[in-house]
Amino acid sequence: MAALREAEFAALQGLLKAPSKDAVRQLCQDCFSSPPAGLGPLAQRACPGLAAGPEEAEQLVSALHNLTRHVVYRGLTRAEDILSLFPENFHQNLKNLLTKIILENISAWRNEAQASQISLPRLVDMDWRVDIKTSSDSIIRMAVPTCLLQLKIQEDAALCGNNPVVSALTVELSKETLDTMLEGLGRIRDQLSAVANK
Amino acid sequence: MGLLNFTRDPVPEAVSGDMHNLNQLSAQQFSALTEVLFRFLTEPKEVERFLAQLSDFATMNKISLGPLKNIVKSILLVPNGALKRNLSSEQVRADFIALGLSEEKASYFAEQWKVNSPTLTRLAVGQTLMINQLIDMEWKFGVTAGSSELEKVGSIFLQLKLVIKKGSQLENVYVELTLPQFYSFLHEMERVKTSLESFS
């Protein structure tokens, strides 16, 4: 499957009107990071810099978004693989520049894609403290240690955009519960080692 | 009546009368009644069973159930107070004698108290207030094979489901951890265990 349609590659050549290589670099990064919904406003902001009309800018931004996303999706890491995406008649210097920019950014972009993957709410932090219960309505004098565990959990990043919702959950564990939990965690660790050693 | 160990409040009037009635029971009858009582104390949820056993006791020994229930109420005052105050069996014995129970029966009850008190103490501790108690933890881990942004991923994820008691309801909390986070979490929990053990 071709990375882009012919018309999209044509639109990319609009980059030749960009004021500098750094401008192209910045635009590549913005286009990759932007979700599809954000491409419209991005195109509008790019118009003056590219000396292009709104429609032209939109097509360019969309094509650049698709190209960068395609490379990351496929996990292409070699210059030859990226160069071969472009059609024969594509402007040579622009092709080389784009390939160079993409190669520079590929691992950062890959990390970005992985970080913004859908997932269950993620653990972002944890704290604990140990208390000694000395008295209660059922026993007037005692010395029972107990653990309070606070987990900071962040909701799915994709749903929250730039304002991730982090909630703090405080949980109490008795010694018995902790022992059982550690047993379970130990089993996970053993299974992980088994998988890693395969 | 001198100072009692199991309570600071004045004891209801009826108690000395109930103790007197208890003294009329034979040793076997008292022993059977004590057994019923301790079975209830160690399993406080089994109220119906307790009442049924009391009723059987009443029938078998030709005692009316009403007065028997009052006697039982009086007796239970002592172990309940003793549990709250971590009383020794000598203190329990002394209290029963102070209330008017015969030495023989007081000693017998105190012996039974000694035998059962570890279980009863554990039950009382278990009833102590806990905030958002962790009831259960389920987990799964696997490999993310691909996503809409990355055709091939191959990263490990770990998902935990924590079942938490909030008030009287259970709530499920789902959390995902990366591998480094998991190892860090495991390390911290082991530190907690060491800390808890040093205080036990």
TrEMBL record, chain A:
Residue span(s) of domain COMM: 122-196
InterPro entries listed in its UniProt record: COMM, COMMD9, COMMD9_N
PANTHER family listed in its UniProt record: COMM DOMAIN-CONTAINING PROTEIN 9
Protein name: COMD9 protein
The gene coding this protein: Commd9
Automatic annotation (TrEMBL), chain B:
InterPro entries: COMM, COMMD4/6/7/8, COMMD7
Highest taxon above the source species: Eukaryota
Gene Ontology MF: a single term: NF-kappaB binding
Gene Ontology biological process: negative regulation of DNA-templated transcription; tumor necrosis factor-mediated signaling pathway
Record domain COMM: where: 133-200
PANTHER family, A to Z: COMM DOMAIN-CONTAINING PROTEIN 4-8 FAMILY MEMBER, COMM DOMAIN-CONTAINING PROTEIN 7
Descriptive protein name: COMD7 protein
Source species of the chain: Scytalopus superciliaris
